[in-house]
Amino acid sequence: MEKKTKIHAEDDRLDLVITREFDLPVELLFKAHTESEIVAQWMGTKVLKLESKKYGGWEYETSDPNGNVVFKANGVFHDFVPNEKIVRTFEMDNVNFAPQLEFLQFEKLTDDTSKLTMQIIYKSIEHRMTQLKLPFAQGLNMAHNRLEEIVTKLK
Amino acid sequence: MEIRRDVFQAIADPTRRAILSLVAIQAMTPGAIAENFNSSRQTISKHIQILNECELLHQIQNGREIYYHLNPEKMKEIDKFIEPFRKMWDDRFNKLESIMKNYKK
Question: Is the pTM higher than 0.80?
């Protein structure tokens, strides 16, 4: 079974590479990264700021159903070439992680297909490991919470 | 309809993980694999079939016997830490793709 999104993370490196091919013209793939309302939809976060230009800044914030902020991140665009590339920083608020550097490369494959290559560089191997493990840990937490809910109902 | 199988489903089962660790050491016939378990040969053969369908094993015919080898390439895909991370991006990109299709002329 061919996976659409691939993660390439070699041991003992500070970076990882995410690749994905889309059934979309490269213009639409790029557009999806530059407009607040669209980013908000597919990233599942509130977009507080998205200045899609060189030296522009961005800010995302995600809240749980009770309105508590569970995730807040920000960064700056260092390079911004429409339909070609985005270079940006990514930093989470209120955590002890150093900012990470992201290189997004947009490629036209055919008129209707395109490819995104996203290289993320971390400050340390430990930082990379933590970021990779985060969704895994969240998955475990969710399972644990659900279990707790069920157990509580049984009481 | 055949259920699509993936490697994560395959390694979720302890017997299948045990089979993988056996053939990781040496190629084995289905009979030799089954001797290591208390379960029926039929049960083990079903497990082997699942592992084979996920390409975690590959078969090599040696005379009348079939030997199962571990497919190390496929094993590399199994990184239980990375998979949820990949899945997170895959879900996001799937959403992106379906949203942007509405913008197509």
Answer: no
